TrEMBL record:
Every DAGKc domain range: 1-129
Gene Ontology CC terms, in alphabetical order: plasma membrane
PROSITE patterns: DAGK
Transmembrane regions listed in the UniProt entry: none
Cytoplasm keyword on record: no
Taxonomic lineage: Bacteria, Pseudomonadati, Bacteroidota, Cytophagia, Cytophagales
Gene3D superfamilies xrefs: 2.60.200.40, Probable inorganic polyphosphate/atp-NAD kinase, domain 1
Descriptive protein name: DAGKc domain-containing protein
Top-level taxon: Bacteria
């Protein structure tokens, strides 16, 4: 009998999870599966989840929350035969958006039950920190910082963050050492994309795959209202002058001055240098 462990973040998305948990219980009735539920607390979650998995020995772990919950689960199950499923229930659901996991609970659970998987790659930053989705330095990371440190949430908080970033926007220089060449770019942002799109739906590239052993470097050279708007409608003109996309398996980047850095939505402070490499096929991911 297949055992599924649901890892639930009770505060993700500022939403009560009672109804969602009830839907999980109702869904499981009559199916030839065994389910367990475990809630995060924000304190030593990684070690406690490891202990829980060791005790229960599930075949599948389902992250019920946002990108932070997905990363928590991914870090624990990477390198094992345990499959990772997603039940989007956070304020940011970037990986669920990338995989086109339905927002409807029953439809998302049907994806879990079907159990189709890929061996997904992960990104390793400075031989220390992992990312699964999209990480970046510059403009977007600055927006994340503004939103996290601001008093307002929702659209007004995001709008204020955008305004503050645009008012203080300056280019920085990035020296980018790729697999086969070194380039120098004057830009507002450099993104490290293991996927094609942000949780907002904005597309960064059209060539990215989660299981190809490569990742994409997206360089935003200058602001283009028309170009950036088009990216929200699944269109990226990769020949346009305002941006550039490189594909690689590793990269070393040096900046001429420190920039805010985020990994999958988690702020990592300011950096002026970062090394990134692919850890290919390390995560069994349900799609």
């Amino acid at each position: 009998m297949n055992k599924i462990l649901f890892v639930i973040n009770p505060i993700s998305g500022d939403k009560d999870k009672t109804d969602l948990i009830n839907q999980i219980d109702e869904w499981a009735e009559g199916l030839d599966i065994s389910i367990e539920k475990w809630e995060t607390t924000g304190k030593d979650d990684d070690q406690k989840l490891k202990d829980c998995i060791e005790k229960l020995k599930p075949q599948t772990v389902v992250a019920v929350g946002g990108d932070g919950t997905v990363m928590l689960c991914a870090m624990v199950v990477k390198g094992t035969e345990i499959a990772l499923g997603l039940l989007p229930a956070g304020s940011a659901n970037g990986m669920a958006t990338e995989l086109e996991i339905p927002q409807d609970v029953k439809e998302a659970l049907a994806v879990v039950l079907k159990g189709n998987t890929i061996q997904a790659d992960m990104l390793l930053f400075n031989d220390a920190d992992y990312g699964l989705h999209i990480s970046d330095v510059g403009l977007n990371a600055g927006l994340v910082k503004e939103f996290e440190e601001g008093e307002r949430r929702g659209f007004l908080g995001y709008a204020k963050g955008v305004t503050n970033q645009l008012m203080n926007l300056e280019q920085f220089q990035a020296t980018i050492e790729l697999d086969d060449k070194t380039v120098v770019e004057d830009c507002h942002m450099v993104a490290f994309a293991n996927a094609r799109r942000y949780g907002t739906g904005a597309v960064l590239n059209t060539i990215g795959k989660l299981d190809d052993g490569l990742f994409e470097i997206y360089v935003l050279r200058e602001l283009s209202v028309a170009g950036l708007a088009a990216q929200f409608f699944d269109h990226v003109d990769e020949s346009a002058s305002y941006c550039q996309v490189y594909q690689t398996s590793q990269v070393k980047i040096k900046l001429n001055r420190p920039q805010t850095f985020q990994i999958d939505g988690e702020l990592m402070g300011e950096i002026d240098e970062v090394n990134v490499k692919i850890e290919a096929g390390c995560l069994r991911l349900i799609i």
